[in-house]
Amino acid sequence: PVKGGCFVHLRAAALVRASCLRVWDSAMSLPPSLADLEYYRAYRPEDGEIDLASYLLDEDNLAEKITSGFYPTPTVLAHLQRTLGEEPKDPDATDVGPFPSRRLKSDIFDAAKFAEKDEFVKSLRPEPLESDAEFAVRLFERSRCGLDSVRAAFCFVCCLPVDELAKAEVESEFYTRVRRMRQTDDSYEIFNWLIGLTDVPSKKIFGYKKGAAFESGMEARRSGGNWTACYVEGEWRLIDPLWGAEILTEFDTGNYSKLDDQGNVEDSRKSEGRLIYGCNEFYFLTDPENLILTHFPVEELRQWQLLDRPLTLAEFHRMPKFFSAALDEMFHYSINPSSHPLNVILGKPGTVKVYLREAAGQMYDYKAVVSIHKSNITDGTRAEIKQQASINGYLSKTTRMSHDTVRFKFVPPCSGKFMLSINLLRAIEYPDKILQIGIEYVSYVIHCPRADRTAKMVPVGCANLMHFGAGAQLASARLKTDEPGEIKVEDGERLIQLESTDQRPHRLECQLYGAADESISPKNLLSWTVGPKTSIQFLSPDSGSFALVVRDRGIPVCQFLLDSASEFRDCRDFPLPDLDSLGGLDVADDAVQELVRPLSHPDPYILCNDPSLQLKFASRARLEIRAELSYICSNGESEELSGYTFISRDSDGFIVDVRFKIAGHYVLQLFYRQSSSSPWQRYMNYFIRCVGQLDGRAEQFPEPLPAWSSDNLLLHPTQKLLPLNKPVSVSVRIGDPDFKVAYLLNEGKNERTVMQRDDVNIWQGTIEGLEDSAGSSVKLLGGPSENMCAELLSYKFESEKDQTIRNKEIRSAAKLNLSRLGNERLRKRKQENHERKEMALDPLPDAPRPEELADLQLENELEKLLLEDEPPLERRNRKHQKHEDEPALGEAQPEAPEDEPALGEAQPEAPEDEPALDAVRFETLEDEPPTMETKNETSESKDEPGAEVSDQPAAGEKAAVADWLNKNLRSDPDCEKYLPIEDILAEIEGKFDDGILLCSAVNAVSQDTIDKRALHRDAGMNRSHQIENITLALNSAQSLGVPVSSEAAELAQSPKLLLDLLWQLIWFGLTDAVKQAAAADSQKLKAMLPETEQDADIRGIAPEQMLMRWVNYHLRNAGSERSIENFSEDVRDSEAYALLLQQICPPDIRDCLNPAAGIVAQSDLLLRAQLVLQNADLIEAREFLQPEDIVSGNSNLNVMFVANLFKRWPCLPELPDGGQAGAEQAAEKPPELVREERTYANWMNSAGVQPRINCLYTDASSGLPYLQLLDQIRPGLVQWSRVSQTLRGARAYFQRLENCDYAVELGRQLGFSLVGIRGKSLLDGDEMPTLALLRQLMLSHNPAAVSRGDSRVENSKRLVDENTIVEWTNEQLQRGGKKSRLRSFLDASLGNCHCLLDLIDCLRPGYVDYSLVLPGATEAQAVDQTGNKASNLDSNNKLEAKELLEFCGS
């Protein structure tokens, strides 16, 4: 019977009915992927073997099918029985039919309460002449209910020692049958005989049983032994007195032979086994979902399965045999198959992987055993198995893939039929010992078409650990980890963390083993402990598999299987140090951490790409700090470097600056003491892997002399060597307020330069060294008076010897980089070949690929540098590392000719029944990007007295912004000193005030928007430089189309404005993927719309609406009737997210997800949200949201979360024609036109038009955006009384048309060339007329030129045109003494940007750093021009468009 009101159950029942009609048709043929294999073509089934075709899995949403009951498993059947079964009936009724019961056996029967009655029954012996009725009186004399009677009958049949019943000369029939019931298997008949003498309703059941002789893949045989259903306690319960009285052990069919670890095939002989008599409680009142594993009634008694979800006979045959010899053991475990719900696996060429899922919080130990069918045992197969075992084994150790999923991996050593038996290990405690028993949980028959020779060798690791990953041993050691048992090692290195669950200290030791279980050098493992966490950094010595074994106090507690595609970067060039000789990497204990705490780099392992590094520390006490830097030489020895570290103090603690001359491995040791009389104590050691293309130019810091205090701050210069014949400004901040005098002493010439102090204790002075000063020292002295001056710092004028040493170091760095480039290219090729091998692809060809040519070109240039001794390595590295920039946005377009032909005939009248919108329109969300939600806001104006407005954003949104910054900027070397960001509001001052983080955030959203060369990044930059950086970020964001409503100075003082800007930036980056998809994959996006919207223009849908339709498309594909109309209330229950993630998840990890049905089954919304975000984490898409944000319905965070999902896993529908039609349509629009459209849309949005422009041709069709721009160009030009600003009903079409006509009319008043362009053209979204109008609007959008009253503008009665700008530009260039000239905006020389850079330098002298300008004079140097373009855009952004136009107007 099927109950209503349960989606899972109804769907499962429907799928089961369909399976009987479709899936399990015995005549079904194998798919081509299997039928083409020789093994399956030649396979001949045995008598009674089930057709292999019936074992084909319907793999679409397999995990959901297992969870829902489409493929029945014990756990799912039990869940359905508990949730959908019926309540008990009248216990005294005698005419109740079969029905599924909800209760467990333990709910109605407690063996302890029957102990006394059981002892009484066991003491009874029938008399030879006693009849059944007479014996029943004695047997049931203590029975008070039906349950007592049934228990007495079962206990008597199972526990009676029949050997004690002697044969008598005269016996009653009852006595004779009881005496012989062990020999004749009459236990069942005697039980029913006795029950028939009571008032208990009962039913005899007969059918199929899976006994010891049953083998997977074979049909279960009709059994001679029956079982009984008894009505007790208001429900029907199942009893098998025959199997309850005897247990068959040591039975073996002899059809399979086991394989040992060495690959030997053990001889197996058929054994009939032996019977052990006793009382097996499992078969008394057995729960139906448990008995169905071995007992199946015939079809006419199908309802006596007593299951809410009945099985078919075919399902019973194919269901695996769980707990084959000890079903009573199942109560100790909660486990379910998650990949193979049938007992036969049709293997494909390659490795077979079986996954099991444990209940939450449960972790078991396993041991898998492989056997081979006797028909496949030959001398040849024995040799193949032996060879496979010796090379890479055939059965990997069990691997825990997640907290609840384990994997078993079988590598076929030859073709044939195998059996994989998975045993559970359980420890049983006895008073004197602990015994570990193994129980077979499940066995599978695996058909293997051929041997898998491609599988790589996998280590065994520690023999005392049964699996890879966390387990019982780790939990008993009071440790935990979230790491899976098998870890993919990306780029040759991986961090693994374990955490203590108690306060007990742990002494963890790590050992690394190779694929052949050989020991690997401990140098490849770096470990340290911070608080309760122990971190292990693995540096792979080569590609392949490794076993990492972790021991606690010498006892193995867990191990991990590390799969590395290559060695770590620079493995061949940089040796690993012996860190033990340098003090190890352990962080200082908690007591020291109270004194000093790392802020920027809490872990002692640092991967660095830059020639400099800054570490920040918080310190509560006034401590003295000392730093020692060592370089690890090629022989592994350490060489101490002096002068490459510098320590200074800030308000929170101290800063350690480090410089590196060449790439390599370094060890930074930090020491502290609390006073000058105290001994130095070790604080922390850092292991630094510096892997950038360092050029050897990093210089030493000035030498701090004894009087120098860490309270002082070195501002400029920060290098020890000073240039000759050039004035050098020296500035420092002295922390001691008693300093009254400071001067610079040139010891070579014995000359003093007095320094001046400003209001913030910054001392400045300028010194110049002539040729005779080469090599002499310059010392900074200061004190309370001239008589009490002490030496603070020591500089040195550069000498010829210093230049020689520098050139030598540059050549050494170039030589090292040349070697590293070649090795890195080989490493990447090796890594890719490793990945291609796993995907069964051919290795890469020996010839260089296009992406390798750039590396080879750089290698050639480095070789040339070494031969010719050329110094400009920095330029070559910069050229190699620079990405090709896109053409600059906003380039001038050719003006339309005056005689441009008309683009259309007289516009037709719209019919009276014209709909309000001219095409299929969509309901709209607010077109503005989401802004930060605030708490406790009032309706009062801020300008009114007493108005209190909280500009504190919601906590979840603050955390989302901080998390995005930490993730997206962590690889940016300029941001290392600012990260991580924890409380964004509290950290605005000090992290955002210099604008560097803002500029990096802009680049994270749109790569290379800002050229970092244009930034001020000096440690001592003044406030004007900081404002310039912020201005650069604001203008760059505005050029992308991000709305900016504040000035730089205002932004720097308002956390709310800053957060809003960051939020808008993130929103732009995410929705830009939606817009690009609308342009590139418009046909695919259109295909996912419902039928009612198929005629719509896909470009007109706002990003939020597109995301909503994308979610609904996947919900429809999941078979759900749900749809969402908002990102707040409609997603609070997490059901939409659960189904969406299951649809877009990659197939290879889909089985690892929390099933959608299981998530929806949870009643706790917060738990649902947690499970959903766990799934998102598995596909690396968990951003912006916390469980509380889903449940609270935070629309801002929800829409960002979905946009991120779309960006990472779009999973758009495939087109029926393979996408050719869509490709043809996409190819019709050249990329230049797409870029132009995007530029105009960004410009309009930055100008603040409403509604926000996502698609030029639809969002501006109302005419309102054009009129708003016209009003900005000439305020008062638009008579708003003529404008229809509210579009209503059937008149909306005509209102749009009137607005567009008015916009064209006003454009002509301004002198625009609009020949043949009418309002209907703009309303219909015709491309050329729309772009022609926008081009002239952008060109004329210059209120400064009008306000300044430029004579050329006034005389022409028009706004600025191209000729005016060209004339003005050349005047400025001539006035500034520049040679470059502008002929027109089609001038090819604009490509190198020299003219524009010269113009900026004329407008603001000294603004352009010409040392950064590249020549770009020939085609061979064309790549250099991109750097000039970036510099020009950034200089322009720093100068600000408004300021440039003011120059233009003057």
From TrEMBL:
Basic and acidic residues: bias regions: 864-875, 934-945
In the record, which residues are listed under signal peptide? 1-18
Q: Which domain of life is it from?
A: Eukaryota
Q: Which UniProt keywords apply?
A: Actin-binding, Repeat, Signal
Could you state one GO biological process linked to this protein?
actin filament bundle assembly
Provide the residue span(s) of the region labelled Disordered.
Answer: 821-850, 864-957
Q: Where is the Calponin-homology (CH) domain?
A: 955-1070, 1101-1210, 1234-1342, 1359-1450
Q: Which GO terms describe its cellular component?
A: actin filament; actin filament bundle; cytoplasm
What is the protein's name according to its record?
Answer: TGc domain-containing protein
SUPFAM superfamilies reported for this sequence: Calponin-homology domain, CH-domain
Instruction: Read off the InterPro entries from this record.
Output: CH_dom, CH_dom_sf, Fimbrin/Plastin, Ig-like_KY
Signal recorded as keyword: yes
Molecular function (Gene Ontology), one example:
actin filament binding
